[in-house]
Design goal:
six-stranded mixed sheet; alpha/beta; Mannitol-specific EII, Chain A; globular
Length: 148
């Protein structure tokens, strides 16, 4: 399953408004709720927070992938957010995260969950792609980058 199959413009937020980690998680959950992808935003928020308490999903190099397996989704779901100024996400390298991929999966779809995490890891290895993402002005531009 590719990112293009998971993400639509209404699941992308550019720029993010949040300045703190917990606010960012709530903002991205709200994006998914607004897109009709989830119903119980508080349960989803708590699931992401529980996962973050186990260890930050801030990978470093400006990338964070908050994710969880939760009962509140029926299929693999993703949101993308960009914060040009960056947010302290307790990343491994100590740098602020600027590009966020929130991935939610039902508990019985662990394989798809891992596949999505792997695909995000692959595409974020390209410094040119990441620079282009950071310069995106709106969701349509972000989606166009993934289509190229």
């Amino acid at each position: 399953m590719s990112i293009l199959e998971l993400v639509t413009e209404d699941c992308i937020k550019v720029p993010l408004e949040s300045k703190r980690k917990n606010d960012l998680i709530r903002e991205m959950v709200a994006v998914l709720e607004g897109a009709g992808k989830i119903n119980d935003s508080e349960a989803i928020y708590q699931a992401i927070r529980t996962r973050e308490d186990q260890g930050s999903t801030g990978l470093g190099e400006g990338i964070a992938i908050p994710h969880a397996k939760v009962e509140g989704v029926s299929e693999l779901t993703m949101a993308i957010g960009i914060s040009p100024d960056g947010i302290d996400f307790e990343s491994l390298d100590g740098q602020d995260a600027k590009v966020f991929f929130m991935i939610l999966a039902p508990p019985d779809k662990a394989g798809q969950h891992i596949q999505a995490l792997s695909e995000v890891a692959k595409i974020t290895r390209s410094a040119a792609f990441m620079r282009a993402l950071l310069h995106s002005q709106n969701p349509a531009e972000v989606l166009e980058l993934f289509q190229e």
